[in-house]
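Review box. Two proteins, two foldings.
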Amino acid sequence: MRVAVLLGGSSEERGVSLASGCEVALALRSRGHEVIAVDAAGGQLSAREERRVLESGIGRAEIPVPAPSRAEELPESGVVGRVPALREVEVVFLALHGGAGEDGTVQTLLEVAGIVYAGSGPLGCALAMDKDLTKRLLRDAGVATPEWIAGTVPGEEVAARLGLPVIVKPASGGSSVRLTLARSAGEVDAAAELAGAGGDPVLYESYVPGREFTVGVLDDEALPVVEIEPVRELFDFDSKYEPGMARETAPARIPDETARVLRSAALGVHRVLRLEHFSRVDFMMDEDGRAWCLEANALPGLTGNSLLPKAAAAAGIEFPELCERICIMGREAGWRRCAGTGAEP
C-alpha cells in the first residue's frame, strides 16, 4: 500500500504524535509498504527528521510548528494543499493526538478533499474529545462514570458537590496534559487555572481510588485488558511516556469475569461514541469491584511505550501487523464510502 502517516500538528500533544507517527511509519515500511510521514502543521518530513524523532524520544525532537498563513487559521488547515502527495496515497494513517488532529477538524478536511483515512470520523472524534459530552452520553447509556462538573466553579463549591480529592483537567485533550489531583479547595482553584490555560473549558471529576485498567478496541473487538500501576499516585503525562514510571500488565491478572465486564463495557463505549477502527477506553475499578469509565481515546498513543500496542501484543498482534491492519480497515472503509457516493476511491 501507499500510505501517508499524518502526525505532529500544533496541539500540546505534538511531541507524542511525532513519536507515534514515526514509529508507525517505520513499522509499516517493515511490512513492505511505501510510506511518507507528513506533519499536519507543516509538510512532509525528511528521512533525517524522522530519524531525529525516533532517536530523541517523546517531546524532545525540535521540529518547529510553522505559522499559519492567516492569524485566524489553524496550522493544520492547509495541510492538504501543502502536501499534494496526500491525494496520491491509498490511505492516510492518523497518528495525531489532541487539538485539531483529534477533535474531528482534520478528519473533516480529509473527507472534503476525498482522501481516504484510517480511524474514527469527525463525529466520533468530536464526541470523544469533549469529555463533558462523553460523560453525558455514557450516563445516558447506563455506563458508570464518576460524577463531574463542567465549567469554571469555585473550589469550595467543587469540594462541597464532589468531595475531595478531585481530579481537575481540561474538558478536551489527552495524555493527561494539565491534569491535577487536588486535595483542597485552594488546590482546586489553582488546578482549574492550569487546566483552563489558553481558554480550555475545565472539567472537575470525583476521584475514584482503586485499580486502573484500559481496554483497546480493534475492528469492533475488545483486546485483552491492561492494568496500569503508576509509580506515582496518578497516571500523569510522565507516567505514561517515561520508561519505568508505570508497570503495565497485559493481559491484566484479574478474574475472567472481571475481564469480560471491562471488555464488554469498552466495546459499548466505543459504539456509543461512534468510534471506528481502533480506540482505547480507560477505567478505574473501586474497592467494591465496580468499574467506572473515565474517558475514551479516539486516537490513542502508538509509541513503543503506549498501551494499545501492548494490548494488541497480548492478543498475538505485533506492532507492525497492528499498524497494517488499521491501514487496511481505513482503506476498505474509504472504498465503501466512495461506492455509496459514486466517487472514485
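Next protein.
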Amino acid sequence: MFDLRIKDGTIVDENGMYSADIYVKDGKISMLCTGTERYEASTTEDASGKLIFAGAVDSHMHIGEYQADFEDMQTSTMAAAAGGVTTCIDMPLNLYTPSVLNAEAVALKKKLLLQESYVDFGIWGGLTPRSIPFLQDMHKSGAISFKAFLSGGGNDFDAPSLGEVRRALMRIKDFDGLAGFHCEDASIISFEKERILKETAGSRQDFLNSRPLSSELIATENMIELARETKAKIHICHVSHPDVARRIERAQDDGIDITAETCPHFLVFTEQDYLLKGCSYGCAPPLRSRESRDELWEYVKKGVISNIASDHSPGLLENRNDDYQTACQSGYGISGVQTMFQTMFDQAVHKRNLSPTFLTRILSSNPAKRWGIYGKKGAIRVGFDADLVIFDPEKEWIIDQNQLFYKVKLTAFHGMRGKGSIEKTFLRGVSIYDGSGITVKKGFGKSVKG
C-alpha cells in the first residue's frame, strides 16, 4: 500500500503539463499514473481542478537567528512552508550566532536548523578574507555553496579583494563548488555613503544615489573575468537591472559557467515605490526604474536569469522606518519567502501569459540543478522527494502582512492583490501546510547535503 495518493490534479512539469495521479511511498514519488489504474493508499488527496507543482527551492534566504523581537528559524521556515517553499538555502551572515566562516560554524548552523526548521535546507558558507583557508573544510562539513558580499556585509563579512576572490575561486574550483556574489562595489558604496553623511540629509533619494547601477555593473564584470580565468562556477545574486543581465548573457555566450537570480521585488516594485512609500521597500541593490523592471522580465523569460529567489531579509519595524533615522541609516531588506510563489504565479501567468511550466523551471528545477540537488528536489518525477504544492490557479488573494507567519509583521508586498493560491504543501510526502496552518512540528526539516 502507498502512503499517499494525490488524484485528478494537473502536474506542472518543467517541460509540460499533464494529468496524473501521484503515488508516494517512504517520502519518495513512487508512481505517476496517467491511465485508469487505481491503487490503495493510506491517505488520498483530491486535487481536481488544481495544479500540482514541485516544491520551490529558495536559493537565497536570510532565515534569521534568535532574539526576542527578531525573525528566527521557526518563523522563517513556517512562512516558507506556507509559501510552497520546501527547500531553503540559508545565507551565512548571522546576527546572533557565529557567522558561517569555518567548519565548526557550518556544523552549528546545521544543528540549529535540524532542531528548528519546518522545511529542508542547505547552508551557504561565507567567502571572506579570513575564511579562504577553510573553504574545503566547510564544503566537507555541509556547506552547499559560498557567498561573498562584494559591498561588504558587516558583522564579520568584510568585502574580499579581487585577489582574495581569485584565490578563493581557485580553491572552490578544486572541489567543484559554487561561489555566489552580492555584486556591488564596496569602494563606490563606502565613498558615496561617507559623502552623503557629510553633505546631505540622507534622504531616500540619497540612499538610491549611494548604490548606483555602475557599482553593480563593475562588481559583476569583475566576477565574470575571474570566472573566465579560473573556470570556477559562479552565481550572481539578486540581479536588479537588465544591463547587469546583459553582461551575464554575454558571459554565458562565451561559455563561462555563470548563473544568476533575481527576486520578486525587482520584478514587481520600482524605485518610485521606495521613494513614495518608504524604507520597507529598501533593498540592496536598490529598486530600479519602471522601464528597467519591465526589461528585466525579458531576461528572466529567456533564461539568462536562471531562477527567482526571495532574498528573504527580515528586519525590525523601527529599522525599516525613516521616521526613526535617515533613510541612509535605516536597514534594508524585504521579507518575501511566504509570498514569492503566489506573486510570481500572478505576475507570470495571469499578467504576462506565460505557461505555469515557467514557474516550475524558475522556482524549482533550475535552482535544484544549480545547487546539485536535482534528482532529489526540483521536479515531480519517480524517485524524487515528494515535495509537492497543490495550487488553485484562480483563487484571488490580498496579502495582509498581519496574517503572515513572519515574527515581524512587515513586508513590502502588503496590500498586493492577485490570483493563484497555495492550498497545501507536502514535504517528503507529509503535509506541512494545510491552507491555514503548519501541520508538523519544528525540526521536521532535513539537510539536503550530508
